[in-house]
Amino acid sequence: MRSKLTFPLFVGILGLASTYLMGCKKENQVKACFDVYQNNTPKEIVSFESCSENASSYLWEFGDGTTSTSSNPDHIYQELGAKTIKLTVYGEGKEDSYSKTISVNAIAPKSLTITKIRISAWKDTYNNGPWDPDGYADLFPKITNDDRYLYISNHHHDNCEVGSTYEYNTSSGLPIVIEDMDDEIYIEWYDKDSGLISQFVGSLGFKPSEKHVFGEDILVFDQNEFQFELEVIWEY
């Protein structure tokens, strides 16, 4: 009888041990996994939620050169298009990776409000000479599109010196609202002459849709000897 029971009992013990070891191995397996939640916002804010198993640390690669080590990060993309996100998780000396590609989109702005204009540099000569007999320009801006003037400042600064900053705000007739985001807008600068037609100093143009960056309320222009900026509000 004894010899007959030995083999089945031995097999049973081995079977239990094998099941236990396999169960431990499965429990300790590190597996990367995540879900993506995309929000309907002006600039795409994407939320990532890890569903990884047995992970103690995380490395997210967002597909735009930036990373995070949070377990459930939020990320704001500055550029639109397809992005491949990779999550690598680590635990007990092991690691695993999982990747997913998403499409990053954003809501375009409906309008642009210009609240202030500041200028600090411009072409400081006229026909190789000074703008005025005193050697300085008396600056004021106009804003126009291809059809009409949208704004003409009712205030000018006297004796402007390149390198100093001059501001135009509510006292100059601002703000103005621009609703066509694909319209070509020109910021024109003039030298105010008493009793004479104001002299054109120069201009720079832009399309609001191409200049738009979510979260930025200053549009900077630095070209053709001009340095000026617009303080703006985007409406969505």
Structure description:
The protein folds into 2 domains: 71 residues, Immunoglobulin-like (Sandwich); 125 residues, Immunoglobulin-like (Sandwich). It is elongated. The protein is mostly beta strands and 236 residues long.
Q: Please identify which CATH superfamily of the largest domain we are dealing with.
A: C2 domain
Distance between the termini: 87 Å
Instruction: Return the structural class.
Output: mainly beta
Low-confidence stretches: 1-14, 16-25
Q: Number of DSSP strands?
A: 17
> What's the CATH architecture name of the largest domain?
Sandwich
Radius of gyration: 32 Å
Order of helix and strand elements from N to C terminus: HEEEEEEEEEEEEEEEHEE
Portion in strands: over 45%
Q: Number of DSSP helices? A: 2
Categorize the overall geometry.
Answer: elongated
Largest sheet: 5 strands, antiparallel
Relative helix content: 10-25%
Any idea of the CATH topology of the largest domain? Immunoglobulin-like
Specify the CATH class of the largest domain.
Mainly Beta
Query: How many individual domains?
Result: 2
Mean pLDDT over the full residue set: 86
